[in-house]
Amino acid sequence: MAKTKYVYYFGGKKAEGDAKMKNLLGGKGANLAEMIHLGMPVPAGFTITTEVCTYYYDNGLKYPSSLESEVKKAVEKVEKEMKAEFGSMTNPLLLSVRSGARASMPGMMDTVLNLGLNDKTVKALAKNSGNERFAWDSYRRFVAMYGDVVLDLKPKTKDDIDPFEHLLDEMKESKGYKLDTELTTADLKELVKSFKDAIKKHTGKKFPEDPWEQLWGAIGAVFGSWNNERAIYYRRINGIPSEWGTAVNVQSMVYGNMGEDSGTGVAFTRDAATGENIFYGEFLMNAQGEDVVAGTRTPQQIEELKKNDIKCYNELLDIRERLEAHYRDMLDIEFTIQRGKLYMLQCRVGKRTAMASIKIAIDMVKEGLITPKEAILRIDPEQLNQLLRPVFDLKEKQNALKNGKLLAKGLNAGPGAASGKVVFNAEDAVAVSAKGEQVILVRIETSPEDITGMNAAEGILTARGGMTSHAALVARQMGKVCVAGCGALNINYRDRKFTVEKSDIVVREGDYISIDGSTGEVILGELQTKPSEVVEVLIDKTLKASDAPNYQMFAQVMEWADKYRKLGIRTNADQPDQCENAIAFGAEGIGLTRTEHMFFGEGKIGPMREMIFAFDEEGRKKALAKILPLQRIDFKGIFHVMDNKPVTIRLIDPPLHEFVPHEESGLEVVANDLGYSLSIVKDRVNQLHEFNPMLGFRGCRLGIVYPEITEMQVRAIFEAAIEVQKAGKKVFPEVMVPLVGNVKELEFQVEILHRVAKQVMKEKKTEVNYMVGTMIEVPRGAITAEKIAKVAEFCSFGTNDLTQTTLGLSRDDSGSFLPAYVQKNILDKDPFQAIDQEGVGFLMEHAVKHARKARKGIKLGICGEHGGEPSSVEYCHKIGLDYVSCSPYRVPIARLAAAHAALKHKKGKK
Ligand code: ADP
Ligand code: MG
Ligand code: MG
């Protein structure tokens, strides 16, 4: 058996890997190799594969035995290419050690730079570069990074201080410096010494002077960081499996901190916030890597590089074009300039906002770089949410600005509008938002430790950092509103407040602020938000499509999506206005009308309660007669709007006690209204009490015990249908019986259904096209689908109840344990959000197969909440459903998800 290759070299004109090898080499390693193939200037190095990471965790934190010699050989190759020697005291090669997972995990793993420096090599570096300050600046950075990352001295909580930062600040303060660049060689030497002392003090161990020990320490730290808390959390919220592992990239250093003719930067080949086709980036001269992204110095716009180094600027522009043409996508690049020579350190497909994602995809189709199919697949269905999301009401905002509420302006790093209470750390953001409050997380700068808080916040505001800072990147990925680099803010964590330069305003924890992530404005107070362009054009009709560029993009995406999708898209709606919205968003019918929602409407709850408290059938019928005309009006409204589209109406479903009040005062009102004594009412309420209402007297069980309820509802449906039909509309009612587990339940209800329908049609001398069907939402219903489908003309999976009954857990009681299940990886995802394909899906697939056996071409759909969740939509396509149904605002998402499903899986119905 051939020995497994664990190390892949890249450098000069040769690379053993390429962009297709992301699984093995991680994204960074694979793309570094690819850039070499494209003839771009990349410092030589090698990638240790993700398989080593897996091996390391599978084998008690040990490496494969051949790794050491492979690494040695690779270092030799790098030495040859770079004409320097690792550990040499005359011509030392320095290395960077960089993590690189398959999926990019921004900032999750720490990079160690300038590795190989020690008291001796630093002197050689000083001599060879002719720049002693640079050598010592590199050395102090290395010692600090090594201490933080490898020796674990990095602060663990927000209150801990980083010993190295602390020493650096002390030094700067005592000397009266503002910037790191003011530090002299002597200062830097002193810092190296005090850094090393700090390491000795905190760890009890000496800083390792041996370069090889440094190298293996750093490699181990990268593999170790795969399982740190932040990485685990990031993987969980992004659905990255822990088995993937990370690769380690070891690369020869190039120096952006060699002086004013050197620098480092990051850029996007297009604007990541708006998608505009412009080169967007930031750089700093005389700086090293993290300086740009960490936000300690505010970087310059890439345009400015023209002035500093026109040759490198033009070379970058050329690389930008070649990379886009090659990858056919927008990329995010990192580069360093060493004494006028440009080096590429990274490229990857760039993260972008929903807006940018859509714009870039559409533009690239126009530019002939990609096809509409590719464009569709590049837009994450969930991202559409951001296009539907509110913006600030312009008038209100202008008023606020006029009234001097504008606090400051930062960078428009994550578009959208957010208002909320100010919090100053991640823990508070989580705690306050858990109480249902909207919060804005305000930080000097964010780091990976803040991810939980960023996730919980409506918006993120930082004082430091650019468009490519951690805050900006992560916010865009999460779809959060973000204003970054708002330098006028003076944030004081300890006193939990911030002040604004040149103003005496103090904003404290709990105060309201509003941030506009599209303009960068930070505004004092709470601001009303206003619908997005899409909503204005489609729903509110307050904007013309021709005046709404974002809407036009939305419409283009929807047009493509509809071309490719196979699934029908319906909506869950109970009221005419909801139906109108859903149609505007592209719904092709109603998959679920919950009739019980109507009973709470104007004038209906009274007769409903009268029916519930009635002592006999006669009393119930009397009350139902009062409800009938009201229900008829409801249905008429819906049929009217849904002209020419199918409307699935579910018969009453919830247990009756949901319609009666439970507190004393409410019961008194009921007693009064109905003319009963309070004690009779109380007795009746007690009778209605159930130990387990979810499994109690509900669904078709109600219509079986009280057929008169079904009769009334069916009469209302058909009377309404006939009236609307007579008014010139086309109606297609599909009457749906809930909670059927036994075909005889269905037969019982269907008999009533046909009987009453016929009767009404005869009375009105009008025929209506209709269907009768059922929900499949208890396991027995799914298991006996063949029998059920002999009676049902259509079936719709009620995956909310089907999930509850299959997993044997109540959704409303699951809050106390389900999060722990997800956290402990017992469940991948919340089964009420994404269909549990292994369990619930087993029943669904069985039901689909057997229902179709009994009735060829039976119409099958889904109407649970899952119908608007992309992975569930994809699943519904795969198992061959005819349609999905979801809430109106998720209809566009479902359309796009259905197109994704159709493009990814050829199978599916139709
Ligand atoms: P991340 O995954 O967080 O982006 P990187 O491995 O890209 O981490 O490293 C962060 C920064 O360190 C890079 O953007 C680059 O500026 C700097 N860096 C990494 N490797 C080198 C190198 N070989 N020479 C110079 N700078 C480097
Ligand atoms: Mg990077
Ligand atoms: Mg149900």
Briefly characterize the structure.
This protein has 910 residues and is of the alpha/beta class.
How would you describe the overall organization of this protein?
The chain has 910 residues and is α/β, with parallel strands linked by helices. The chain is 46% helix and 17% strand. It contains 37 helices and 34 strands. An eight-stranded mixed β-sheet has the order 15-25-24-17-18-19-20-16. The chain has an eight-stranded parallel barrel with strand order 27-28-29-30-31-32-33-34, surrounded by seven helices. Helix 13 runs antiparallel to helix 14 and helix 13 (354-366) packs across helix 21. 51% of the residues are buried. Residues 653, 738, 777, 798, 800-801 line the site of one magnesium ion.
Q: Outline the biggest β-sheet.
A: 8 strands, mixed
Give the radius of gyration. 32 Å
State the helical fraction: 40-55%
- As residue ranges, the low-confidence spans are none
Strand content: 15-25%
User: Widest sheet: strand order?
Assistant: 15-25-24-17-18-19-20-16
Count of helical regions = 37
Q: Whole-Å distance between the termini?
A: 48 Å
**Number of DSSP E strands:** 34
Structural class: alpha/beta
Instruction: Quote the average pLDDT.
Output: 92
Q: Which ligands accompany this protein?
A: adenosine-5'-diphosphate, magnesium ion
Shape: elongated
